[in-house]
What does this fold into?
Amino acid sequence: MTQDTGQQTPLTLDEIAEWSGGRVRGDGSTSVERVRPLDRADSGSLGLVADARYVEAVPASGAAALLVAADLEERVAGVDGRPRVVVDDPRSAMIPILRRLDPTPRHPTGVHPTAVIEKGVQLGEGVSIGPRAVLAEGSSIARGTRVGAHCVVGRRARIGEDGYLHPHVVVYAESIIGDRVILHAGACIGSDGFGYAFEAGRYVKIPQVGRAVLGDDVEIGAHSCIDRGSIGDTEIGDGVKIDNLVHIGHNARIGEHGAFAALNGVAGSTVIGSHARFAGQVGVVGHIEIADRTSIASATKVLQSVEEPGTTLMGFPAREQREAAKVWAAEKRLPDLLRRMRALERRLEALEGSDEDDDAREAYPDSR
It folds into this structure.
């Protein structure tokens, strides 16, 4: 097996504009080899100007050329005259640019001599199997998929086309993974769910016999875990993006095109609709349903079902955004409210004491 070095090929601004749908201002033959932030750009770089905060940094940048958001073009032109490509959405425009400038070495096709391929394994055209990978009996890897070093693919697991398993990924037996799926280092797909019965003072394991099923275009971050179902399947819909260190419990079902940031925990049998967006450290209890297009803020803990599509939640326990904002505003006033309450209590005590003195004087007039 020979290794592609992945060396960069310079691109001209004319080529970048063609691939990104942008417009060139200045010399379109200017070439670049990489995209860099303005403060780290050099003479071979395309500097990124996607936010108004960075316009003032443009003149001091060493970039050969600029990639500029259309709504910032006039401001940038007012402070700097170097060549640039103007695009409506720099983040979207960077996708084809970075793909063509990506220096990452490409994996060679074929099976590394140290890989272990058990009987009945099916390998599609153009598959790459890295050093010391293990493909168990009856598993299949479809066309163009790359399996990195030390990966393990369990018995009868099926992995679709044009995927990429980074090193040390483990795919348990019977798991099904769609096309163009990326599994980052240490990801674990199809591990047993946390299922036990408490009998006679001890926990007894409930066999986990379901599968983990991932749709097309899914990406799973490093050291994230997707449990297999207990008796049904755990399902991750098409296009779902899951960050590092996320746990999805057994029999959970996640709709298409959701995004889940790091340190999320979704308990078993939870059903999450499509296009959900979870910020970091969100926790969700089991056996509830969360509607389509739900957005959940960082560190929120969801304890009950969400029925209304498009809801935004925050806090612990989770509340609708506007309600949570009111609660937080009230909490900020609590110290002042406590001081006022204590002052009122002291005044009331003083008044009650004064009333008792008046009663005593009326009952015992000679005591004055």
Residues 2-6 have pLDDT under 50 and may be disordered. DSSP finds four helices and 40 strands in the chain.
